[in-house]
Amino acid sequence: MSEHDLIRIFTEWNLRSFSGELPVPEIRWNSRLKTSAGRFIPDRTRSIIEVATYLCEEPNAEHLIRDTIGHEMIHFWLWERRMPYGHTPEFHRKMEEIGVSRYNSVPRHRPFKYCYACPSCDQKILTRKRIRKAACAKCCNAHNDGEFHSRFQLKLVAVGEQVGQVPSRERVG
């Protein structure tokens, strides 16, 4: 599916659900989007709607792409009307009216890269980013009135593929 197809889908939505009143924004694919299917980037000169490229790999790609563009167009429609353009009650009303989804049904989650452990209780915490100075909240709350104490400072115990082999109870970031 090309960017031309995205514009075609936008035009179809625009005529059917927005009385053709929306100007055509820049519409493009974004390969960096993973958990969201799309996003609206407002701009007074030319707004942007981005659609996640991974949607093309899904079995029902056409439906997901149409749904994503329709969803982002509601944000754009509210923006053009100078109204709050988040997931407001007006957004939800329009969403119900035109029949699009609120949530991405096929998010791609990034793997955890780091595993840290509390030296006191051995609780494991998985993260996607390296953390420098953090302590076990459970132990700090129980033994130090919620204040940081170095004896509960988290220690790095696994990196990369090794992280998947560590049993964990809590996941972060």
Apparent shape = elongated
Proportion of residues in β-strands: 15-25%
- Count of separate structural domains: 2
Per CATH, the architecture of the largest domain is 2-Layer Sandwich
**Amino-to-carboxy terminus distance:** 33 Å
CATH fold-type name of the largest domain: Zincin-like
Round the mean pLDDT to the nearest integer and report it.
90
The largest pleated sheet is described as:
4 strands, mixed
What percent of residues adopt helix (DSSP H or I)?
25-40%
**Which parts are unreliable, with pLDDT below 50 for 5 consecutive residues or more?**
none
- Report the CATH C-level class of the largest domain: Alpha Beta
Strand order of the largest sheet: 6-4-5-7
Q: Give the total of beta strands.
A: 7
SSE pattern: HEEEHHEEHEE
Written description of the protein model:
With 173 residues, the chain is an alpha/beta fold. The protein has 2 domains: 3-98, 2-Layer Sandwich (Zincin-like); 114-171, no CATH class. It is built from 4 helices and 7 strands; from the N terminus they run αβββααββαββ. The chain has helices spanning 3-17, 61-80, 89-98, 137-143; strands at 26-30, 38-41, 48-52, 114-117, 124-127, 155-159, 170-171. The strands form 2 sheets. The protein has a 4-stranded mixed β-sheet, with no helix packed on it. The longest helix is centred in the middle third of the chain and has 20 residues, at 61-80.
Which tags fit this structure?
173 residues, 3-stranded mixed β-sheet, 4 helices, 7 strands, 17% strand
SSE layout and pairing:
Blueprint: H1 3-17, E1 26-30, E2 38-41, E3 48-52, H2 61-80, H3 89-98, E4 114-117, E5 124-127, H4 137-143, E6 155-159, E7 170-171
Parallel strand pairs: 1-3, 5-7
Antiparallel strand pairs: 2-3, 4-5, 4-6
